[in-house]
Amino acid sequence: MTLFARLYIMKNDFKGRIFDTWKDQNRYSIELCAGSAWHRFWTDNTDISNLLRRGQLVALSTTEQNEIVSLEILAVPERTEWDLSTDSGRWQKTLGGPSLRERLQQRQCIISAIREDLYGQDFLEVETPLLVKSTCPDLHIDSIQAGEGYLVTSTEYQIKRMIVGGFERVFTLTKNFRANDRGRYHSCEFTMLEWARAYETLHEIEEDAIRFIRKAFRKLYPEQDKLNFETHEIDFMSQPWERLTVREAFERYLGLSDLQDFSLEALCLSAKKAEVVLPQHFQQDKYLVMSYLFDLLQHHLGTHTPTFLQEWPAYLTTSAPICKNDPTVAERSELYVAGIEIADGFPFLRDAKKQRALFAEALQLRQEKGKLRVEIDEPFLEALGQGLPPGAGMALGVDRLVMVLTGASRLQDVQAFDWDEL
Length: 422
Hints:
The protein is of the alpha+beta class. The chain contains 10 helices and 20 strands.
């Protein structure tokens, strides 16, 4: 259907969906989403106004004064009431902030900046399998079984196998999957960036993260150094990023001091001295105590500048080597921004026998906790036995980084499709 109104010099042609219509005195106005932009137009032509409906897909022409002079209806929704939660409106709707469409465009800018930086550092991007025969046995990671194997939880083992094979700088940017992972900062399917350098230190990996996150920030915000996220003003550009050990963070923010180790006894005693009340049913399990304490700690981290939290309790990972000067902690670094964990990295654990022993301990712990037994990665262990060079790597949650940099309140606000929308 096409309707021609009075003749004017036309300014532009637009195609898009009518998001809203209203009457102001004798004028009828519409709000149109065309491409990535929003437009407002008006008409006092009753014939045109009678055709305007929310949800319609239209093509129109306007004058320089934004008056509609012609209107073609391209599609009429079958529903009487237009539902913004459906595909016709899901990506365009706004809730007091940018639409998901705008955030997806920002997401593309962030990923582009990261890729450009890593390419400039001579990293090789590789595509690794999404379906694998074996998986990570860590207690806090639940794999999704698929066919005769698992959906990949991380590309760490594949990257390290490539480094054994002679590649020195490798990264993947792909989907990962973890069961029962739902929440504001979690999704069963998510996008992970993982990268590693042979013959370099964890510090160099941290510097990679600082560099490409700053480039992504600058691409979104060319004129500013700080970003307001919820109640925090975070300086990404003008200040050095903070580095704290777990012990330092526990003492600074929770008052836990004299932690010579992270045994259950030491944790409970230190918490009692600091008047941190631990739930009674947690006090028989160091993993539950650590989880509870980190829940108390986490929202303090990265609230002024991004923060690397270093030197973690050794028993919390099966992949990080033990610190040479302190056998109670592992060389591990997690990046936090606004209290949200963004990345996790460590130097390579290169001892195949030690790695196998850690996997066995993790499998035993899974059994004790009643968790599903998983198959460990034998080709990875074999590759370690052939000789993994010194080096380090890190995994970064792309969705979480995009969420923080775009001011989104939850992970689902930066993903084109949430699980509940499939």
